[in-house]
């Protein structure tokens, strides 16, 4: 393939040939930015600046409402785990990082609950599919907490206790509200 | 207190003794180079990053705090120096050891030596330091200038142009093809712009009728409109000098020899403090070129009401003030050079050589002729 060269015509006249005007214009632009940012940031006068950088540990960016943080398990009104061990989330999880061992729940209306519920946060790809899959608002990722660094890999596996520690009663009604889906026409 | 110190010196070091000349020259160069040039060069390494950040809506380095002493991150240059000193000093196995070690010194030493001719303040009146001495009546003036040579600025050009050996040697000694090519680029650029720089200042030699920077400052007035830049050939000479000086210092828009972001330069194999010497040399070149520009075009240490102040303040205080004013001018000019560096995009090598040889050089020669005519008809 032949190399095609686009020749850009030089701006004509003394203005285009000396570049001096363009140079002065460019320097005026950068100088304006300097004058706007310098007093506020270097001299410490509180003034409106254009600086986009955040000084991270002191200033933090507010996360958007839909940010996906560490998982948490929600609770029923009586404090029991809301999860019914339906195995939706381990099935959908692309990283296979959710381990659930179910057991019989003492409450007959609930029937099933997890005995072991573990999420390996190192394997998790933070896709949020588990939250989508859950039929009863038992698992959420709305904590806005990053997975903390750990010294051992095993420490990154959150067990049910850790997951419930951030949990709170969900206001969603178990089983949903309104007519049974077969009756809805 | 000050009186007795001055009296002690006046008694034991008479003005015309050889000991006095040597002592004064040593003191002046030590104070000037260590106290001003090196310090300002260090500050400029920080300022370049901080100022460019402010120009680009970033924050820049602002975290080298010493406990509660923050100073806007000013200590970054100290941290940088410590880092460079403790870094591994790597010499490529096949590099020429002697030349490799020599190159950074050859790049740094000339620019430091060249500062000797720059006058950095009003002359101190020896023996009458605590009295008020009006400008120009002093019998035993001590010039605030490490070396007062009749060759003046020619000495500056002669010595400063030696720095090109440092860059070429660095490229050659590294045993690295890209470093060698970088060195060649640097050599071609520095050679071509040196001519323009000399020619630009030659016009000013004609206008002032002297080569000596101290005499040039004396020829300018205290008020800003009496400074050297006012006049057609003078203004052209200033623009030419500034352009050539930036090219000579290898700074954007003429930073083709290094061009950190795109191309490998002549000091690619250097690390630690050897690299630091190249880096520092670049900033000292900014200071010296700013100092020359301030001396020749912006009145040196002169400032409005200097005459009145000289006649009313003690001489040493006035000299201190004039040194302060001179430093401020040089500092502002350095800031201006940084502004240029972070505004303009880089040229291509062919554009650079074309600008140098086909535009600036003919223009600077024409300007010398113009300056000669200007001098002839304005007298
Ligand atoms: S966020 Fe995705 S990867 Fe992580 S546990 Fe849920 S489904 Fe698995
Ligand atoms: S999808 Fe919800 S209810 Fe089902 S196992 Fe997962 S967390 Fe428990």
Notes on the structure:
- The complex is a heterodimer of chains A (185) and B (379).
- Chain A has 185 residues and is α+β, with helices and mostly antiparallel strands.
- Chain A has helices at 13-18, 20-41, 88-92, 129-133, 160-165; strands at 72-73, 98-104, 112-120, 139-140, 157-158.
- Chain A folds into 2 domains: 14-60, no CATH class; 72-166, Alpha-Beta Plaits (2-Layer Sandwich).
- In chain A, the strands form 2 sheets. Chain A has a 3-stranded antiparallel β-sheet.
- In chain A, strand 2 (98-104) and strand 3 form a beta hairpin.
- Helices cover 64% and strands 1% of the residues of chain B.
- Chain B has a two-stranded antiparallel sheet.
- Chain B has one domain.
- The longest helix of chain B is centred in the N-terminal third of the chain and has 38 residues, at 18-55.
- By secondary structure, chain B is mostly helical.
- Chain B is globular and about 60 Å long.
- Chain B has 13 helices and 2 strands.
- Chain A binds chain B through residues 20, 23, 26-27, 29-31, 33-34, 37-38, 41-42, 44, 49-53, 55, and chain B through 50-51, 54-59, 62, 72, 239, 339-340, 342-344.
- The complex binds iron/sulfur cluster (2 copies).
- One iron/sulfur cluster binds at residues 83-89, 100, 133-134, 136, 138-139 of chain A.
Summarize the structure.
The complex is a heterodimer of chains A (185) and B (379). Chain A has helices at residues 13-18, 20-41, 88-92, 129-133, 160-165; strands spanning 72-73, 98-104, 112-120, 139-140, 157-158. Chain A is an alpha+beta fold and 185 residues long.
Topology readout:
The complex is a heterodimer of chains A (185) and B (379).
Chain A: H1 13-18, H2 20-41, E1 72-73, H3 88-92, E2 98-104, E3 112-120, H4 129-133, E4 139-140, E5 157-158, H5 160-165
Antiparallel strand pairs in A: 1-4, 2-3, 3-5
Chain B: H1 2-12, H2 18-55, H3 76-86, H4 97-114, E1 124-125, E2 141-142, H5 153-160, H6 163-173, H7 177-208, H8 213-219, H9 232-248, H10 272-297, H11 306-312, H12 315-341, H13 349-378
Antiparallel strand pairs in B: 1-2
Helix pairs in contact in B: 2-10, 2-12, 3-10, 4-5, 4-6, 4-10, 6-7, 7-9, 7-13, 9-10, 9-13, 10-12, 11-12
The structure holds iron/sulfur cluster (2 copies).
